[in-house]
Design brief:
By secondary structure, the protein is mainly beta. The protein is built from 5 helices and 43 strands. It has 6 domains: 121 residues, Immunoglobulin-like (Sandwich); 88 residues, Macroglobulin (MG2) domain (Immunoglobulin-like), CATH 2.60.40; 102 residues, Immunoglobulin-like, CATH 2.60.40; 132 residues, Immunoglobulin-like; 87 residues, Immunoglobulin-like, CATH 2.60.40.10; 55 residues, no CATH class.
Length: 619
């Protein structure tokens, strides 16, 4: 019985491509086959000339095809040939077979025995896709070309170059899925724009082109402060689109490094042991940490190394000398806490000691008078504060100390105790001992010394002598009572409070004003008083005058102004209108004359009386 089988080299091909069909087995010595190609709807296809590929004839001998197919009239069928190896070659180009994208069945039937076999072939639309980054960093990133194509297991030619020539030109075979990834090193490639081309072998129209820019990597340092203080921790952060490690070189010294993660890096520089002055900061981006034997952290990088690697980013910083300050009220009210505060740069703690006038240590408190511990006062955001419980009346001396950038001081011994001498030492002696220890040669200790006193609560009131009615009375009082305490300011006359304001102590002062408008006040003397939490008070007199009037002198009477009739009478005194020579009528005049004119009238009356007596004697 006759039997045969078919074999397709490829079960998938691309449009415009060719594929081969062979007789895998055949137990007949020779004959003729009828060849038909059907689409997925079981219709026979045609070639470019319109010939129906339906039962066209082809000769065979055993397992080889020995002729090109012909139609029933003996005409050759375009699109199908046989080769020297006895294979049938099918050409899917548009001018050959009409085999666009789709699935087709090739049917062969022996003309004599009518034995039939078939094979399916899938024709895919041909494509070539290529992906490539637009930019790559020279020496750090490769040119990565990703290829996807319908030309499975076919060779493609990959070239990269410019007008000068190609620096890369190689053939690469696609895998069974038509994929391939090509990586090209850029370490020895010049900066610039390059053309990337991928072409399918023997199919030049199937090609793709891209362009890639080979550039220098970008490294940036975020904003670095222009100045800092010795002892500060300076934070540096930046970005880099290449490299694994950011190496920090400050004034040629390898200070440290930081890993680059997601194109970002950060590093902290502890300036505690640095000198003040200008510093240049250079950043080198590397793939590996420098050899620790040749370049240990803290060692210098030679000039040739820096020149070879090249600085990728730089900045500068000026380190200032540490600053230290202390604030304490000069006069503190008995019963109030003593607040000692200050600022410091480049330190996380300071030390405070307080003596009374006898040299006794009032802070830090200790029952052992022979050894006084130096307790640390911690610094937060550059500020420090110590609050002492209420001290007794007297004068005090306070010293605040910062050990400086070297972290050492002779003022505090190895046991963490103040070096202030024995119990018998006076205030002056203890201060001198501390000053000698703090200020000895080569010491970088920082200190502040100040004095304060504790006294009874007091208020010193200041108000203007005269104020026009309708305007505000400005009130200011200085006090040694602590800030935040309530204060009450009042305006009164004859012990009767007219108006009262409430405020509080701020920065050792009580400041407010009393509005005199709308109070229907008359000109005259009034009292302004201030009381701070019932602990201290003060009172002063203020004279209110009408607007536009001259201020009344303190030694002048404040009775009602003289009427115009009195003024006229005053002008005619001496003409005898109200007074006779005996002084009769004085009572009436006195009623009409203001008090401040009385002295003048009395003098005139006395003179007139003396004059009258003298005239009688002469008679």
């Amino acid at each position: 019985k006759h039997s045969f089988s078919l074999k397709l080299k490829d079960t998938k091909v691309q449009e415009k491509a060719s594929f081969n069909l062979t007789l895998k087995t055949n137990n007949k010595k020779g004959g003729v086959m009828k060849l038909t190609i059907e689409d997925n709807e079981d219709y026979s296809i045609t070639n470019a000339n319109g010939t129906d590929i339906y039962k066209v004839l082809v000769n065979y001998t055993e397992k080889e095809f020995t002729s090109d197919p012909v139609d029933a009239d003996g005409n050759l069928v375009d699109g199908i040939k046989h080769d020297a190896e006895g294979k049938l070659v099918f050409n899917t180009k548009p001018k050959q077979l009409d085999m666009k994208k789709g699935t087709y069945t090739i049917i062969l039937e022996d003309y004599a025995t009518e034995v039939e076999e078939d094979a399916d072939i899938e024709v895919e639309k041909w494509y070539l896709e290529m992906e490539c980054d637009d930019e790559v960093v020279r020496g750090w990133e490769d040119i990565v070309i990703t290829i996807h194509s319908s030309y499975y297991e076919r060779y493609v030619n990959v070239t990269v170059g410019n007008s000068v020539g190609d620096f890369y030109n190689e053939s690469k075979k696609l895998d069974e899925e038509g994929k391939r990834r090509v990586k090209i090193l850029t370490e020895d490639v010049d900066y610039g724009r390059y053309k990337v081309t991928v072409k399918v072998f023997k199919f030049p129209e199937c090609a793709e082109t891209r362009y890639v820019q080979i550039k220098k990597g970008t490294t940036t340092l975020e904003v670095v402060p222009e100045t800092a203080t010795v002892g500060d921790i300076v934070h540096k952060e930046g970005t880099s689109d290449y490299g694994y490690l950011a190496v920090f070189v400050i004034d040629d010294v390898y200070k440290g490094d930081a890993a680059i993660v997601d194109d970002e890096f950060e590093w902290y520089w502890d300036t505690a042991c640095e000198l003040d002055g200008y510093y240049g900061i250079d950043v080198f981006i590397l793939n590996d940490r420098p050899d620790p034997k040749k370049f240990p952290i803290g060692g210098e990088f030679p000039e040739y190394w820096q020149r070879e690697k090249g600085v990728d980013a730089s900045a500068s910083l000026f380190l200032n000398c540490p600053a230290f300050s202390m604030t304490v009220s000069k006069c503190i009210a008995k019963g109030d806490p003593t607040v000692i505060s200050g600022t410091v740069t480049g330190a996380d703690h300071v030390y405070v000691i307080v003596f009374n006038y006898r040299g006794e240590v009032m802070f830090p408190y200790t029952e052992n008078r022979g050894a006084v511990p130096a307790n640390a006062t911690f610094v937060e955001e550059g500020k420090w504060t110590e609050t002492l419980s209420a001290l007794d009346f007297g004068d005090y001396t306070v010293i605040a100390l910062d050990k400086g950038k070297d972290g050492r001081t002779r003022a505090i011994n190895e046991n963490g105790e103040w070096e202030i001498g024995g119990e018998s030492k006076t205030l002056e002696q203890r201060v001198a001992i501390l000053m000698d220890a703090i200020t000895f040669a080569d010491s970088d200790d920082l200190y502040v010394k100040d004095c304060f006193s504790v006294s009874a609560p007091e208020v010193i009131l200041t108000v203007p002598e005269t104020v026009e009615i309708g305007t505000a009375i400005s009130v200011k009082a200085e006090t040694n009572i602590k800030d935040g305490m309530d204060a009450f300011v009042s305006l009164s006359q004859n012990s009767s409070i007219i108006k009262k304001n409430s405020t509080e102590v701020k920065n050792g002062s009580v400041t407010t004003s009393i509005d005199t408008s709308g109070l229907r006040l008359l000109p005259g003397k009034y009292n302004v008083a201030v009381d701070v939490s019932g602990r201290a008070s003060a009172e002063k007199e203020v004279i209110l005058v009408e607007k536009g009037k001259e201020p009344i002198p303190k030694n002048e009477s404040l009775t009602e102004p003289a009427p115009e009739s009195v003024k006229e009478g005053n002008e005619t005194v001496g003409e005898g209108e109200f007074l006779n020579e005996t002084g009769d009528g004085w009572g009436e005049v006195q009623k009409k004359i203001p008090v401040h004119v009385c002295d003048l009238i009395i003098a005139v009356v006395v003179a007139s009386a003396i004059f009258a007596v003298a005239r009688r004697r002469r008679r």
